[in-house]
Amino acid sequence: MLIDKEWYTELKLGNIKNVEPVSGGDINLAFKVTSDSGNYFLKVQPDNDASFFDHEVEGLNLINSVARAPQAIRAGTFKGNGYLILEYVEFGQGSQYDLGQLVAKMHQKHADKFGLDHNILNAKNPKINDWQSNWGNFYVHQRLEVLEKLVQQKGYWNDYRDNLMNQLKTLILEYYQDNPVKPSLMHGDLWNGNVGFTIDHQPILFDPDVFFGNREMDIAMTMLFGGFNQEFYDGYQSVYPLADGWQKRISWYQSYYLLAHVNLFGKGYGPSLENALQQSVNF
After folding, report:
1. Tell me, what's the pLDDT at 124?
2. Cβ contacts of residue 6 below 8 Å, gap of 6+?
3. Closest C-alpha to 255, from 238, 241, 269, 236
4. How far, in Å, are 1, 110, 161 from residue 136 at the CA level?
């Protein structure tokens, strides 16, 4: 897509000197915009409108109320394309301990119930966020079962996985009847590609998919694909210690993320999903 002089006028970022494509994931086109008023990060969602970015803006604003994420400047629609302007972050190096503390501070923002004010239905992995008082009910019925149904429809399911999943759902529903947790502000996609450090060494979080949930779910994601060292977890625990036995529950939540990967990328993630389910039911 060409970001031309008509776009320059629409963006209202002063005298734009240069626009260059940058890597921005597989969902949006992404550009670095250089103008006399500074540098900006531009995301464009072709054939859509500004509402596509509503959830991301909401998430950035929520995280920025207690932690650090890029500032959302403005969203809009131009020539049938949705766009979002963010502050441009110059990357540097930083401390994993500080990053862990930042995530813990985010998790200290609480709500009365689990969920969010709206569902996310325009994503490949839809999120049903109806408010719930019990975490087990929310997680089983509004996360696991939603994706389980999609994976079944795609033919990536079998009786063995079904049996393990049913055992896990029963375990979770029973456990959280007797072990309630506080709803925390969740990043929602906390892998190592969505964290970093600014040029002045401050930790920062990117591309959130927020809701209020059990913070162990975010921690489980950090442990699924690597990129976080022991200093990260030490920093986290120094601010907001996790409940006893959290390590044993990590597979409960990695099962969800691996189910999401089966839904997105196919049967190649099936063995990893089965392994996580096996670990879960051997609680």
Report:
1. 86
2. 78, 79
3. 269
4. 44, 17, 20
d(CA 244, CA 241): 9
Cα(208)–Cα(60) distance, rounded to whole angstroms?
7
Residues of the chain with pLDDT under 50: none
CATH no. of 5-87? 3.30.200.20
3-class DSSP state of 261: helix
CB 221 within 8 A of CB 257: yes
Which residues are designated catalytic?
Answer: 189
User: Which of the listed CATH numbers 2.60.40.10, 3.90.1200.10, 3.40.190.10, 3.90.180.10 matches domain 96-281?
Assistant: 3.90.1200.10
Quick: pLDDT tens for 157-210.
Answer: 999 999 999 999 999 999 999 999 999 999 999 999 999 999 999 999 999 999
This prediction's pTM = 0.94
Query: In this predicted structure, what is the pLDDT of residue 24?
Result: 62
| Bridge partner list, 42 | 31, 85
